[in-house]
Each structure stands twice: as C-alpha cells, then as structure tokens.
Amino acid sequence: MMRCLTAVLALGLVLVLAALPTSAQTPPSAADIAAYDGLHAAAWTGDVAAIERLVAAGAAVDRRDGQGRTALHIAAHARQREAMRTLVRLGADPRALEAQRYDTVTIAAVADDAETMRVALAIGADPRAITSPYDGTALIAAAHLGHDEIVRMLIDAGAPLDHVNNLAWTALIEAVILGDGGKRHERTVSHLVAAGARRDIGDRNGVTPLEMARQRGYGAMVRILESR
Question: What count of other Cβ atoms lies within 10 Å of the Cβ of residue 73?
C-alpha cells in the first residue's frame, strides 16, 4: 500500500512539473528592464562602450538587481554576448549565481541558446556547477527540455552526467519523464547514453529510465537504453 501511495505521489509530481512553464528562472520583466540604469541597462542593450565607461568611473561590476542578477546575468538573458565578454574582462564573476541560484550556463541551457552557451563557457562559467532551487545542473535543465545540442555541448565541457538533484532525478531520468518522447528528447537520451551516463540509477522508488520509457511507450528511447 505504501509503495503504491508513493508511486501515485511521484506521478503527481511529474505531472505538476511537466505542466510548469519550461523555465523556472525569472528573466527580467518589462518593469525590471524599464527600471534598469547603469550597468544593468547597458548590459541589456549590449552597449559595450557604456559598460567600459561606467566601470572605469567606479561602477560595481557585480552589483545586483532585486532578483540578485548581476549585469552579466542580464546580458546572458538578452543574448548580448559581447557585453558578457566585456563584463568578465572588466572583473565580473563568470560563476555568479542569482537569487534562484541560476548562472549564465543554466540561463543559456534553458534558452536553448548555443551561441550564448559557447560564450559562457569561454569566459569561465562552470558547467559542473550545482544550480537552481532543485540542486540541479545546467545539463539536467537542458535534458528536461530536450535541448539536445546544448546537452552535447555540456557533456563535451565536462558537465556531471549522473548528478542527482533534490527530486532524486538525473539528467537521463528527466529526459524521459519530463520530456515529450519526441526526436529532440530521443537525441538527448542518445547523447547521455553514448557519453556513459548510468542507466541503473532510479528515482526514489527505484524506477530506472528504461522502465520509465517502457511505461510511456517511448519505443525509440527503450531501444537506446537497452543498447550495449
């Protein structure tokens, strides 16, 4: 009886998370953007000359807005990649976490933005960082969303394949249970398996990714997960 109840509760959690917006992050709102001044405003618009001038005049390069975002986070959300490079060159912390514990790597992962991801990694952001309220990683976030190119990039950058978040899920588990079973999630599972992600790590009930894929009728994923 207890095992059945636990399984029902776990299914409920999956349904709730799957129904949430694709990003648990809080990007700058229209009101935030309108209120920005100084470095945050320059980062949003990508005004590199203004960034250099403001920092030279003494602006704190890692000053935070009301959500704990630095100008670097703002530039990442806005896809202002040259601004990102400039901010780090002028002393911004490339591994800073905002109030929800997201960094530039996870921002790019959720946005499915490969170019911003390349810049974030090049300027010193950490693909191994533990981020988000779920104690996850950028790889888990990308796998959840089926952002297969980002998944491949993060694997190549050394992201931890088998990190277990506070929901007791790995990237491989999230790709199956929070995905839609489509081609991008199939490629995500394929990338993870090819890289050596452990297929024997189950959820809190011991259910493995293979069992989850079978339960959902994801035939292609089943074949990938059964492969040697």
Answer: 30
| Fold classification of 101-227 (topology level) | 1.25.40
Q: Check: CB of residue 171 under 8 Å from CB of residue 140.
A: yes
- Residue 224 corresponds to which tokens in the numbers above? 């990938």
136 forms beta bridges with 131
Topology agreement, domain 30-99 and domain 101-227: yes
How far is the C-alpha of 84 from the C-alpha of 227, rounded, in Å? 41
What is the token pair recorded at 124?
């010193």
What is the residue whose two structure tokens read 């300027």?
123
Kindly report the number of other CB atoms within 10 A of residue 84's CB atom. 29
What's the start-to-end Cα distance of the chain, in Å?
A: 36
Q: What is the DSSP letter of 136?
A: B
pLDDT of residue 19: 44
pLDDT of residue 228: 78
pLDDT along the chain (228 residues), means of 10: 43 46 72 96 98 98 96 98 98 97 97 98 98 97 98 98 98 97 98 98 97 98 95
Q: How much of the chain is helix, strand and coil, in % rounded to 5?
A: 55, 0, 45
The residue ranges of every structural domain in the chain are 30-99, 101-227
- Class level of CATH domain 30-99: mainly alpha
Predicted TM-score (pTM) of this structure:
0.89
Closest CA to 209 of 217, 201, 197, 218: 201
